[in-house]
Write a structure and sequence with these properties.
The complex is a heterodimer of chains A (603) and B (294). Chain A is mainly alpha-helical and 603 residues long. Chain A has 16 helices and two strands. Among the domains of chain A are: 35-211, Cytochrome C Oxidase, Chain A; 375-526; 541-603, no CATH class. Chain A has helices at 3-10, 28-33, 38-68, 78-114, 122-141, 172-200, 213-244, 268-301, 309-322, 340-366, 375-398, 400-406, 410-440, 446-464, 467-473, 490-523; strands at residues 255-256, 259-260. In chain B, strand 1 and strand 2 (125-130) form a beta hairpin. Classes of the chains: A mainly alpha (603), B alpha+beta (294). Bound molecules: protoporphyrin IX containing FE and copper (II) ion (2 copies).
Chain lengths: 603, 294
């Protein structure tokens, strides 16, 4: 890489960051409920996301019961099945993963990791959570309105999303759209905060090229979200107008159940373009924070610097940029002009290169490390494997000619669950096991963690790996029941039963995880300030859990990158980012530079 | 240690599963073997990468497991290695994309001599239309649909009268003939999917979409809908029978035309002239879309 880029990283001291005047809450309501402290907001976001995520999980059990044992459960009919599918997909993607990674981890980690007292706009940050909560409540309400929740699939494709024949076209779809619009408004308030905080509130010495990759991942993901959500926002508003005022943005002339509708000349494909212009970056909105977190956890627990830090940063940026020009790979069979296939297949496969590099760099970080197989590390290894698997099947589906036979089959379901269902969830587990000690001052129970890890990891692989092969047979997705066909062998039904049983086992194993959290909050082994001997700033706070304002009387000053592990010539195997060079204990007196940024960042 | 062993078992197990599990492609019945080939090439290239990366990871986890007397290596970057990996990956991607795009080019290039067949989807059934003796399908519009004209054919179009309409019965296709499937929906999105044909495409109201294929073996195959279209989506089935030429001609001879089945509709008596202009816009829009895609 050129030296031009390196120069920027040489600038060590930033302008002095002014002390900010924080809002000091005195009443418990303003301290813990309507709190403006990013850490409390983070916990509120996370708890809400996990609760609604559990609803999504239960819905997946119901679907799997139907797929594994069709005609056994009377209470599941086609209508409710499609409602489960829709609500499950939407909850998991938006209300669980997006909210948890950005609202949860973003809020907790950004200020702490960049050395800020709080987010720059704490009041707006608080509003962000409350609007999110309302969005979740509106979404939940749609289960209970007449006609029930929408059954249009999480992609909400018109015309069927708002036409007769689809469940939930009375209240369900309206509430769904309103909820999405609210979610986006709430997210925007938080998102602006995350971006501005990273750009403006970093501690002295925290140059961009010294930021931990977790911050880079969340930062770029937030920018993607701020650019991508508006497409969903307008699509949602336009569909609401179509549904409520009878406009025809997305609605062509059609005859539904024998009646000509009053719509005319709308374009269903326009919606698909808007949806996927949001929908593809959405994958990376979830993935980039996960990439960042994995990088940091692997580095810490392998006691080794992340391999190719600059490459990792540029890969995040490149993936983020490219993710805006690949959206139509979700539309290869949509009836759009087939010549688009050439362009979108090419861009999609190009994205694979920076993504593969990240994969290599994680594995190369393990190479010649000194690996502690702690629970967070175990989950990260599991992430690498499942993400590798899902990334590879992405190469199948991105290559347009391969997508044609596989599109809309169980292969797709297996692919996106590996890549954005299982993989990010494994990272969430890794992150919780890793940062819980900072958040609570206590460790999670190791043995229970092992149990949770093995069931979850092996179970997920057993659920989704064989599922790809159902797609090769040609089993379609979003099918309430497959019924009689001439091409699906009876053994496929056995496989479906097997998958359902594993799903239930994995599902119930999560009880152990939740119990572990609740019990450890009170009874866990005390963790101390820095149980993993990590370098980044959140582990260097004066108190654990960090108090309001994060750091003690003085903000930290940063002297080096976040990956000073096992630096030669230094006694300890880690050097915190904020340890002044003259306090670093050296085994020899040779030179002073070694414990600072790696020479590559200093040429 | 345990983790390293488990990783090796997963890598080996996945390969074994791939080759020995009973679940694989449904035998093909069209000319799109290039799709199966592309899948197999992708499996070969990515499968090697998959196994290699997992095994390397397992090796690292075993070899560099924590020992108190060991210290990790310190190597922030290794440009040579990083560039080398970049180029190897790029080469792999080119290896996947090239055959893929070549095959795609074939897929989007409909042969001149392809016969047009039309599939009409509605919640939740399939209907079909074949050209009559003139070899051409007449124009159509959703606005013309009525009990006397369930396909919405344009009675003023001379090509439409002899179009053959198939309702509530199996579709038949001739063996070894290139066929262009025109797809039309009267309500929501659907997707015409025959697993043995490999190719599939959405039906989109307001547009005519298409794909082409040549059948390669006789038999009876299931037609499924592969795009969610409401509560009856999973039950939207049909069957397609691929016949050799003689059997196909025999079947075709037994089918009836628009003019025979719906004399009123074909005469266009109940259709007022005022809607002509509107109908035109829809018709041209449809045709344009076809042209664009050719
Ligand atoms: C182990 C937990 C999970 C199980 C057992 C599960 C199961 C399922 C099932 C059975 C379907 C319906 C497939 C079909 O026939 O189309 C589905 C759809 C889906 N799932 Fe999951 N899922 C899980 C976790 C997740 C997570 C964490 C995500 C987050 C990205 C997710 C995202 C989706 C999406 C987007 C759909 C598509 C919905 C649609 O077709 O409209 N799932 N899941
Ligand atoms: Cu995508
Ligand atoms: Cu359908």
């Amino acid at each position: 890489m050129s030296n031009g880029m390196l120069e920027e990283t040489q600038v060590v001291p930033l302008a002095e960051i002014e002390e900010v005047d924080l809002y000091h809450a005195h009443h418990w309501i303003t301290k813990y409920v309507f709190s403006q402290d990013a850490k409390i907001i983070a916990i509120q976001y996370s708890a809400t996301a996990i609760l609604i995520g559990l609803v999504g999980l239960v819905l997946s059990w119901l679907m799997r019961l139907q797929l594994g044992f069709p005609e056994v459960f009377d209470f599941i009919d086609a209508e409710s099945y499609y409602q489960y599918v829709t609500m499950h997909g939407m909850i998991m993607v938006i209300y669980l993963l997006t909210a948890l990674f950005l609202g949860g981890f973003g809020n907790y980690l950004i200020p702490l990791m960049v050395g800020a007292r709080d987010m720059v706009f704490p009041y707006m940050n608080m509003l962000s959570y409350w609007v999110y909560l309302i969005a979740v409540l509106v979404l939940t309400a749609s289960f209970f309105v007449p006609g029930g929740a929408s059954g249009a699939g999480w992609t909400l494709y018109p015309p069927q999303a708002i036409s007769e024949g689809t469940p939930g076209i009375d209240g369900g779809i309206i509430l769904m759209l309103v909820s999405l619009v609210l979610f986006i408004i709430g997210f925007t308030m938080g998102g602006l905060n995350y971006v501005v905080t990273v750009l403006q509130a970093r501690a002295r010495g925290m140059t961009l090229m010294r930021m931990p990759l977790t911050v880079w991942g969340i930062f770029v993901a937030t920018i993607l979200a701020l650019l991508a959500f508006p497409a969903l926002f307008v699509a949602g508003v336009m569909m609401l107008l179509d549904r409520v005022l009878g406009t025809s943005f997305f609605m062509p002339e059609m005859i539904v159940q024998g009646e000509m509708t009053s719509h005319e000349n709308g374009s269903p494909l326009l919606f698909q373009h808007l949806f996927w212009f949001f929908g593809h970056p959405e994958v990376y909105i979830v993935a980039l924070p996960a990439f960042g977190v994995v990088s940091d956890i692997i580095s810490t627990h392998a006691r080794k610097n992340i391999f190719g830090y600059r490459m990792m940063v540029w890969a995040i940026v490149a993936i983020g940029g490219l993710s805006f020009i690949v959206w139509a790979h979700h539309m290869y069979v949509s009836g759009m002009n087939p010549y688009f296939g050439f362009f979108f297949a090419t861009t999609t496969l190009i994205i694979a290169v920076p993504t593969a590099l990240k994969m290599y760099n994680w594995v190369l970080t393990l190479w010649k490390g000194n690996i502690h197989l702690t629970i967070p590390m175990l989950f990260c290894v599991a992430f690498i494997l499942t993400f590798l698997n899902g990334g590879i099947t992405g190469l199948f589906l991105g290559n347009v000619i391969v997508d044609i036979p596989l599109s809309d089959t169980m292969f797709v379901v297996a692919h996106f669950h590996m890549v954005m269902g299982i993989a990010p969830v494994l990272v969430i587990f890794a992150a919780i096991y890793h940062w819980f000690p900072k958040m609570s001052g206590r460790m999670l129970h190791e043995g229970w963690g092992q149990f949770h890890f093995w069931i979850t990891f092996l179970g997920s692989y057993l659920i989704y790996f064989p599922m790809h092969y159902l797609g090769f047979i040609g089993v379609p997705r979003r099918y309430f029941e497959i019924g009689e066909t001439s091409f699906i062998p009876p053994s496929a039904a056995t496989l479906n039963e097997f998958i359902t049983v594993v799903v239930l086992i994995v599902g119930f194993a999560q009880v152990v995880f939740i119990a572990n959290i609740i019990i450890s909050i009170f009874k866990g082994k005390p963790a101390g300030d820095n149980p993993w001997n990590a370098t980044s700033l959140e582990w260097q706070t004066a108190t654990t859990p960090p108090g309001h304002g994060n750091f003690g009387d003085e903000l930290p000053v940063v002297y080096r990158w976040a990956y000073a592990y096992s630096v030669p010539g230094v006694e300890a195997d880690f050097v915190p980012q904020n340890m002044p060079p003259d306090e670093v204990k050296r085994t020899d007196t040779a030179t002073g530079a070694v414990a600072d940024d790696p020479p590559e960042l200093h040429q | 240690m345990v983790l390293a062993i488990v990783l090796v078992l997963i890598a080996v197990g996945s390969v074994i599963f791939h080759f020995w599990s009973p679940w694989w492609f449904t035998p093909i019945a069209s000319n799109w073997g290039s799709m199966d080939d592309a899948i197999n090439i992708t499996f070969a290239i990515t499968g090697v990468a998959y196994v290699a990366i997992i095994l390397f990871m397992a090796y690292c986890i075993y070899k560099y497991r924590y020992r108190e007397d060991r210290r990790a290596d310190y190597e922030p970057e290794n440009s040579k290695l990083e560039w080398w990996l970049t180029w190897v990956t790029a080469a792999g991607v080119v290896g996947l994309l090239t055959p893929g795009l070549i095959a795609w080019n074939e897929f989007v290039t409909v042969p001149e001599d392809a016969t047009e067949f039309e599939v009409v989807g509605s919640q939740w059934e399939w209907k079909y239309r074949l050209p009559g003796k003139d070899g051409k399908l007449g124009t159509s519009s959703i606005k013309l649909i009525s009990d006397d004209n369930p396909f919405g054919l344009n009675p003023k179009d001379p090509n439409s009268k002899d179009d053959i309409l198939i309702e509530g019965e199996d579709l038949h296709l001739p063996l070894n003939k290139p066929i262009k499937m025109l797809l039309r929906s009267v309500d929501v999105l659907h997707d015409f999917y025959v697993p043995q044909f490999r190719a599939k495409m959405d039906l989109v109201p307001g547009m005519v979409t298409f794909f082409w294929l040549t059948t390669t073996r006789t038999g009876t195959f299931d037609i499924l809908c592969a795009e969610l279209c409401g509560v009856g989506h999973h039950a939207m089935r049909g069957q397609v029978v691929v016949d050799d030429t003689a059997a196909f001609q025999k079947w075709l001879g037994g089918q009836k035309s628009f003019a025979t089945l719906y004399p009123k509709g074909a005469a266009g008596t109940q259709q007022a002239a005022e809607s002509d202009a509107e109908i035109k816009t829809v018709l041209t829009a449809n045709n344009q879309n076809n042209e664009e895609g050719k």
